[in-house]
Specification:
There is one protein chain. With 419 residues, the chain is of the alpha+beta class. Helices cover 37% and strands 20% of the residues. The protein contains 13 helices and 12 strands. β2 and β3 form a beta hairpin. α1 packs across α13 and α5 runs parallel beside α13. The two termini are 19 Å apart. The C terminus is likely disordered. Pfam families: DDE_5. This is IS701 family transposase.
Length: 419
């Protein structure tokens, strides 16, 4: 926003800053937090500290000291942000995803050569994992973790020289000793647990196939009493819900089997949906968009979907006492003109749910792309140039607070500039 627009909404920004920065031990820290927010919200191509300081008319060392050396607790800021989102957003789902931060050098924490979604290829980058409170009308990034590849984990090597080099680069970035490599799906679960402890409503979890294909991730959600609608690959192994295990048959040799087994081998999600046929699907409108075209003047999101009851097949899924695997939904999208389905989801949403409601939850992940675009293009999420672990987490926290300010402003009556 321009300085003139900033003056018009300054009371809202100050009120929001007072709410999320209210736990700071020192009053000047709250002022610095509001200053950093205004720097992120003002127009400008770069949102790193020096360009922001120039636009704000302050010494950039004020911003640098606040982010890298001050004593405020970014976790407490996130807790307050989550409390705000639980009430203001009132999410329909919790969305999990990750995003890449391209880097030229190798000194920033967590940098490694890996797939970077922002570039669409393997490159030198950091990866941040995030959880978002989402509805169709709005969303908020409420928690973050920086992913540490194994190359940053000095416990993952038996080579003393390699471990020593890893320890040196960790020390340069001030990475805490208890922070080591942890898979992205485990980081997501850590954040979900944290958000629930903070009072976030228990909502369905949505994620792409990088998470949905992981049986352990799905099972951990179930163990927590959370439902989900997660994307999976077409090759996911399943049994039809009507399949039942049969008692073991003892041939008289070797150790007798003790568990019932399914008589037929599992089949793929693609095979089950293809066998059901396109005609078994129904057209569903799950959202009314804002981009109207000549071919779609109402901007409706509409496609054909099929939903079947299935039993995912994996040896690590706990079975019922009778040996049967738990049931869930297999949802597939089969658009008009496509020779086969294009997308698949597994879902533990209730058995009586309407198809339209299940599709709405499964498709609600689109809000994450909106969040990443707003956070990166407008609020400088990926502009942080510092090289400290703490600085990265503080910057992404402040960018998320700036996004929340934008969300509140969009739903707040216009505020007149001060005299």
């Amino acid at each position: 926003m321009t300085p003139e627009e900033m003056a018009g909404v300054r009371p809202v920004i100050e009120g929001f800053a007072a709410e999320v920065f209210g736990g700071f031990a020192r009053r000047d820290q709250g002022g610095k937090g509001e200053l950093y927010l205004r720097g992120l919200l003002l127009d400008g191509k770069r949102k790193s500290m020096q360009p922001m300081a120039e636009r704000l008319g302050v010494d950039h060392q004020q911003l640098q000291q606040f982010v890298t050396a001050s004593t405020w607790d970014h976790v407490e800021v996130r807790r307050r942000l989550a409390v705000w989102a639980a009430g203001f957003v009132d999410p329909d789902a919790l969305a999990v995803d990750d995003t890449g931060f391209p880097k030229d050098g190798i000194s920033s924490p967590g940098v490694a050569r890996m797939y970077c979604g922002a570039l669409g290829k393997r490159a030198n980058c950091q990866v941040g994992v995030s959880v978002h409170a989402v509805t169709d009308w709005t969303s908020a990034a409420v928690d973050w973790r920086l992913f540490l590849p194994e190359s940053w984990d000095d416990h993952k090597t038996d080579d003393d020289q390699a471990a020593s080099e890893i320890a040196r680069k960790r020390a340069r970035c001030a990475i805490p000793d208890d922070v080591q490599h942890r898979e992205k799906w485990r980081l997501a679960l850590d954040m979900i647990d944290e958000l629930l402890d903070w009072g976030m409503p228990r909502r369905p979890v949505v994620a792409d196939s990088a998470y949905g294909d992981n049986t352990a991730f799905r099972q951990c959600l179930t163990d927590r009493g959370l439902t989900y609608a997660v994307a999976v690959s077409a090759s996911t192994s399943l049994h039809p819900a009507t399949s039942v295990p049969v008692p073991p048959v003892y041939s008289g040799t070797g150790r007798p089997p003790v568990k019932p087994t399914y008589p037929d081998k599992p089949v793929t999600a693609k095979a089950l949906i293809t066998e059901a046929g396109r005609s078994a699907g129904r057209f569903v409108v799950w959202r009314h968009g804002s981009r109207k075209t000549a071919g779609n003047p109402t901007a409706t999101m509409r496609s054909r979907f099929l939903a079947l009851r299935v039993r995912p097949a994996n040896r690590n899924i706990p079975r019922h006492p009778d040996g049967s695997l738990p049931e869930c939904w297999l949802l597939a999208e089969w658009p008009t003109g496509e020779p086969e389905p294009t997308d698949y989801w597994l879902s533990t949403l209730p058995t009586g749910i309407r198809l339209r409601d299940m599709v709405k939850i499964a498709k609600i992940r689109w809000r994450i792309e909106h969040d990443y675009r707003e956070l990166k293009d407008g609020l400088g999420l990926d502009h942080f140039e510092g090289r400290s672990w703490l600085g990265w987490h503080r910057h992404v926290t402040l960018a998320s607070v700036a996004q929340a300010v934008c969300t509140q402003l969009r739903r707040t009556p216009k505020v007149h500039a001060r005299d």
